[in-house]
Amino acid sequence: MTSLDPLLAVAGFITVAAITPGPNNFIVMAAAARDGFAAALPAIAGVVIGSLGLLALVGAGAGAAFEALPALRLLLMAAGALYLTWLGGQLIWQSNRHPSDGEPSDGRLPCTAGGVAAFQLMNPKAWVLIVTAAAAVSGQTAALYSLASLVAVISALCLSLWACAGSAIAGWLSQPAARRWFDRFMGGLLIASAVLLVL
User: Fold this and answer.
1) In sequence order, what are the residues at sequence separation of 6 or more whose Cβ sits closer than 8 angstroms to the Cβ of residue 57?
2) Closest CA to 84 of 110, 62, 55
């Protein structure tokens, strides 16, 4: 097996993890649905920056700590799942507060590059992706740099597709009732993703 083989496998894993529904996808889609594709670019940048930050933490020893202390990983997963559940609940609750207006109720979601980057620390799916991918190239310093490139490029491309989807429904979401149901749906998806990640 060549050094390229594990990277190819990891690239496939990253693609599947980045394109399938999860908290990052919902944040990017919500931003694009609210204000167009350009509005999602800071969120996309935040996901990439935050993911690279997690990779740096794992490379600095967080991955080894999770292996040595399984309870620590479980604690992080539980805290992240609770945070995602809270975010989802807030979306649903806010969508019901002002049934007469069309203002978006996703204000609790991080939307700046810095906010989304920091959000990765509490995102269980991001941790699973990075820890698993880093373990696949464990001990290969050069491969870690390649892994960082894969994470950045693949994540940005996959999230851009979600941003396009959000932009496509922006017109429909200009209707107050549609916006409320969209926010409720997104809130429900956040809660569901938290449950699935824990299970």
Assistant:
1) none
2) 110
Whose tokens are 């979600």? That residue is: 162
pLDDT digits (tens, 9 = 90+) for 2-45: 455 677 888 999 999 899 888 899 899 989 988 889 999 999 99
Task: Identify which of 124, 110, 92, 120 has the alpha carbon closest to the alpha carbon of residue 193.
Answer: 124
- Which residue in this structure is represented by tokens 């429904």? 169
Instruction: Give the span between the Cα atoms of 170 and 183, in whole angstroms.
Output: 13
CA-to-CA distance for 187 and 24, rounded, in angstroms? 13
pLDDT of residue 99: 47
Distance (Å, whole) CA 32 – CA 36: 4
Tokens 């799916």 locate to 125
Cα distance between residue 199 and residue 196, in whole Å? 5
pTM over 0.85: no
- C-alpha of 76 from chain center: 15
What token pair was written down for 120?
């990765």
Q: How many CA atoms lie within 13 A of 79 on its CB side?
A: 11
* DSSP output for 95-111: HHH-TTS---S-TTS--
